[in-house]
Amino acid sequence: MKRALLPLTALALVGCAAPAAPTPTVELLGAPTTLNIGGTAVTAQATPSVQGGTFSVLVRLTSNRPPVPNMTVTGVYVVTGSGVWKGAVGADQRAACARNACVLGTAAGGATGLRAGQTVQVVARVQDARGRALWLRAPEVKISDGT
């Protein structure tokens, strides 16, 4: 009887194991589409494009009550069917729209594996005024050809 219970107990314990750690893609796709910053809803729109061998993504943060809270786009992640493209957004690639109605950030790099017409999911890494790093996911979008 004891010999029969041991394998059954082992099977039961395997079913109770903690789930595997989420992959970066799963974490990115689980990012929120709206951030609540001090009662203001902030959302992102993305404009990815490929031209020649260069891929670039413009991310635009807007809010339901301008001005947009003090935020900075620090990175861009693009989830495709075959992986994740990532790019940093340096200080010279950031801007604010007139009257702080939006915040812009652009990342650029090699376009290997990316093509115009491809549907992708863009996730921005943003930093708020308190220095917290947050994720914000834009709606799915197609990569343009840069024209």
TrEMBL record:
Lineage top rank: taxon: Bacteria
Signal peptide: 1-20
Alphabetical keyword list: Signal
Record's protein name: DUF5666 domain-containing protein
Organism of provenance: Deinococcus metalli
